[in-house]
Amino acid sequence: MVKNEFFVVKGCLKSYMIDSDNKMHVLQFALPDWWITDYHALYNKTPSSLYIDPVESAEVLVISLADKDKLCAELHKVEHFFRRKTNFGYVALQQRVLGLINTDARARYEQLVKQYPALFQMVPKQLIASYLGVTRETLSRLYKSSK
Predict the structure, then answer these.
(1) Is the dihedral of CA 76, 82, 85, 91 positive or negative?
(2) For residue 5, which of 37, 42, 75, 137 is within the disulfide window of CB 3.0 to 4.6 Å?
């Protein structure tokens, strides 16, 4: 069961699932100042379907859903902060899904490089390939042709 959200202070985390063929699918990376958890499990009080692991050494802050709800009820500015963060996260996820539907691997790669250049210094190519929905070989070709 998931009871907490994690705020990345330092490092990088990933959330992912493992399919029936034992293949990893990266759903999200969390860089410093980002939040990460299995939100479906957190809000619906169901067992987690995602794993969350550090990509590199990380420092995180943890807040329980109960404590977050209490803070938001007591402090309007905190509620506003979390609402804005949630909205931005929703927009980013929507853009990611639309990108997977409407763009090819090259465009997804170029957008990721443009939007999050630091990610390529922190995350192994195999994980970036999983996030983009391509093989490591395809990612290597995209990387070489973009130079």
Answers:
(1) negative
(2) 37
